[in-house]
Structures are given as C-alpha cells and as structure tokens.
Specification:
alpha/beta; five-stranded mixed beta sheet
Length: 294
C-alpha cells in the first residue's frame, strides 16, 4: 500500500477507467491530506487500546527523508498497530509520542535497554537473543552454553504453549524454580567455557553475551511468570517490514508531512487487517467522518 508514486497512481486510474478519470497529482495529494485530517480520533482510539493492554511490542526501523536517515517506531498489540515517524532516535521522540512514557504494562523489545525504563516490566525477544547464540555457535568451536541456553528458553516456550492449550495459565512454583536453576546452571558453565576461548575478540563477545544474561535475567525470563506475555518481538518486526519495502521501492519520502501521513494511513490499514476488517471499508468510513476501533 502507498508505495506507488503519484504519477503512477494517476496513470493507473486513467488506464482502469479507459481515460474517463484523468486525476491530477495535486488532487491525489489533496485526497491524502483530507484523509489524514480525519484520522485523529481513530488514531487516538488505537493509541488508547495499546495503552490499556497488558503488554505491547515496540521496535524501530530506518527510512529515508530526502536521502537522510529518519525512523519509524512501531507500537503494537495483537489487535492494534501504531506507526510514528521520528527525525531522530532517542528518548525525546519517544516522550513526544507519549505512549511508552504513559504505559503501565509489559513492554517487549529486542533488548533495547533504553526502553527498559518504561513500563512496569520488560521482556526480551528470545528469538532475537537466539541470533546471538547462533553466531557464537558458528564462530566459537569449543563452547556449547549459548545454544544450550537458547534451547532451554525455546523448550520453556513449548511447555508454556502446551499448558495454555489445556487451559493452564501459569507454571507451578516448583517448575519455575527448576527453570531458574537450569538457567543459572548454564551460566555457571558459561563462565568456565568462556575462559577457554583463545581468541580475545570472541572471548569478549561471549563474555558480553554472558553478562547480558546475568544482568537481564528478569527480562529474559519474564514470560515464564506471565503466560499472557509473548516470548518474542516478531509481531512488530513483521509490522515494520513494509516500511523497509517502501524505502526500497520508492527511496523514502520527500517531505516530513508525507512520512507522517504514511504512518497514520498504515496504522489504520494494519489495525483493520489485524481485526479482520476490510481496510478499504475502514478508509471509506473515515472519509465519511466515522471514528473506528473504539
């Protein structure tokens, strides 16, 4: 959606209507502007739905604005997605969005430690963590602890899904204690194995991963205490993928206004699809002055 330049939209409409509708690029822009002006209340509903949920995903991806790097941050839960365009990274644009700063649930991210000060709890993406474990396995031949730990975390998730299938909503205290012990035992093994790494570069890399596992144990294991929290952040990564696709196809944006409008429009389209609603029906309803997703 909306990765097609105005001249191509003009040409498509002209061809589809056998030349009956020869719309100008200025009119196309005015249509986008009118739609953007009517989205405020619907976007507020999406924002409130995310703020009122027990967990949310967040992540950031780069795009281009007149050839310079700018960013979209996505906020989402299972039924809502919100895209916010930022000129820069850091706390200031997050504070301007007012989503993480006003959120009192669990935030799932790709170990973005700058996010950890927001929310009540934070869950690391286990799949993202696994990429670092695989890297260590492929490059350091005399250690086994990273993949052992990754397999443990995946096993916990499989067990959690089995329990959920049978209506269970939590592990027992003894099960949690055992899982924590297995986690700690692997880290004890990691300290021994890391000492045997001959390469200074890979020893530093492996120790860095170990220190992360020690310091952020709570963030790594929060999903074992709360079955409602996803164990990965793939949901928002998939939602942000179309930003990358647009950047590759069109090269990015020529104006900040266009980037903001794109985020607004895609927030509504993606939220509609998550709710199994027809996106075009939703766009039509907003043009008619209706507010959605309350």
């Amino acid at each position: 959606y909306f990765s097609i330049p105005y001249n191509k939209i003009k040409e498509l409409i002209f061809d589809l209507t056998s030349g009956i509708i020869d719309i100008s690029e200025g009119t196309i822009d005015n249509i986008y502007e009118e739609f953007s002006d009517k989205t405020d209340e619907t976007l507020n509903n999406i924002t409130n739905n995310i703020l009122n949920s027990s967990y949310q995903h967040t992540d950031e991806t780069v795009t281009k604005l007149n050839g310079k790097d700018t960013y979209y941050r996505g906020y989402a839960n299972k039924e809502n997605v919100l895209y916010k365009h930022h000129l820069n990274k850091g706390d200031k644009p997050i504070e301007e969005d007012g989503i993480l700063t006003n959120y009192y649930g669990t935030i799932i991210s790709d170990h973005d430690t700058g996010i950890f000060k927001y929310g009540i709890n934070n869950q690391d993406c286990i799949i993202h963590f696994g990429r670092y474990c695989i890297e260590k396995e492929q490059n350091i031949y005399n250690i086994s602890w990273p993949m052992e730990l990754y397999r443990l975390l995946l096993k916990i998730e499989r067990n959690r899904q089995i329990l959920l299938k049978y209506g269970k909503k939590k592990f027992t205290k003894s099960e949690i204690k055992q899982m924590e012990k297995e986690y700690d035992d692997i880290l004890t093994k990691a300290k021994r194995e890391n000492e045997e790494i001959s390469s200074t570069y890979w020893k530093d890399k492996s120790n860095s991963l170990l220190n992360r596992c020690i310091k952020y144990k709570k963030n790594m294991l929060f999903y074992i205490y709360d079955f409602m929290v996803p164990y990965d952040n793939n949901f928002i990564e998939r939602a942000l993928r179309m930003i990358k696709s647009k950047t590759k196809v069109s090269g990015g944006f020529r104006s900040r206004k266009g980037a903001v409008r794109f985020g607004q429009t895609m927030s509504i389209i993606k939220t509609a699809k998550l709710r199994k609603l027809n996106p075009f029906d939703c766009i039509k309803a907003i043009f008619e002055g209706k507010t959605l997703f309350a």
